[in-house]
Amino acid sequence: MDNTIKITLIGQTYEKDKFGQWVPEETTRTIWGRKSPITRAEWGEAGRQGVNPSFQVKVRTQEYRGELVAEVKGSRYGIYRTYEDGEVTELYLEQKVGDHERS
Questions:
Q1: Has this prediction a pTM greater than 0.90?
Q2: Which one of 29, 56, 80, 96 is most buried, counting C-beta atoms within 10 A?
Q3: How many structural domains is the chain composed of?
Q4: pLDDT, tens digit, for every residue of 52-96?
Q5: CATH (domain of 9)
Q6: Which domain holds residue 39?
């Protein structure tokens, strides 16, 4: 089974509006990654911290720029933890309450 998926990383920048107020703007980039299930150990540790993990995605380290939100197959996830191991960075994703598939 091929576990390669497209993942859209969502970041935020701030622009000044016509009143001089800083307004958040979303930036998006789509990259490829490899989806893996959450390990039992990760599930337990995340649960102790109040996190409900969904899955992890391994991406190339050079492609990850610190984004805190990702979208996979129309659903948004928070990136609650990362782990960098040389050329690969593991992104641990959690679906937030109220963040369901977009129409």
A1: no
A2: 56
A3: 1
A4: 899 999 999 999 999 999 999 999 999 999 999 999 999 999 987
A5: 2.40.10.270
A6: 4-94
